[in-house]
Amino acid sequence: MLPVFIAIGAFLPLLFLLVQTLMDKP
């Protein structure tokens, strides 16, 4: 179960960064 939390912890910031990049560029 721990690797799942690590994967989510690593994936969420990347997803947030991707969303910010898409929002920044029209």
Describe the model.
This is Malectin-a. It comes from Triatoma infestans (Assassin bug). The chain is rod-shaped. The protein has one helix spanning 2-24. Helices cover 88% and strands 0% of the residues. The mean pLDDT is 92. The chain is built from one helix and no strands. The protein is mostly helical and 26 residues long.
Q: Largest sheet at a glance?
A: none
The assigned structural class equals: mainly alpha
Q: Order of helices and strands, N to C?
A: H
**Low-confidence spans: pLDDT under 50, at least 5 residues?**
none
From the spread of the alpha carbons, the general shape counts as: rod-shaped
Helical stretch tally: 1
Question: For the terminal residues, how far apart are their CA atoms?
Answer: 38 Å
Mean pLDDT: 92
Strand content: under 5%
Helix content: over 70%
Cα-atom Rg, whole angstroms?
Answer: 12 Å
**How many strand units?**
0
Organism: Triatoma infestans
Protein name: Malectin-a
